[in-house]
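From the thread on structure requests for the teaching lab: each student submitted one protein with a one-line request. Submission from student K.M.:

"Model CsbD-like protein from Levilactobacillus brevis ATCC 14869 = DSM 20054, tokens only."
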Amino acid sequence: MKNLVLGISLATNVALAYLLLQDKDQLKELQSRADNAADKVAGKAEQIKGAITGDTGDKLKGNWDEGKGEAKDLVDDVRKDFEAGSEE
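Reply posted by the TA:
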């Protein structure tokens, strides 16, 4: 049963990926969001490392990286809203 559910899930994900890859704009946005999320996760990991080791530099670098990911998300949102407004 578990293998059946995993197979269905895999097939669904492949179909979704195919549909997403057909739209270049969506793919570009998805890549950008993934990059932003990677910055946030790396920043959070650096913060945790700094908290464990007591290294303030690591904490600050983590804050910077996480903030960079959030700022890039905001820029992407503004760009998307601007493009949607110009299409109308």
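TA comment: The first helix runs from residue 2 to 22. The mean pLDDT is 84.
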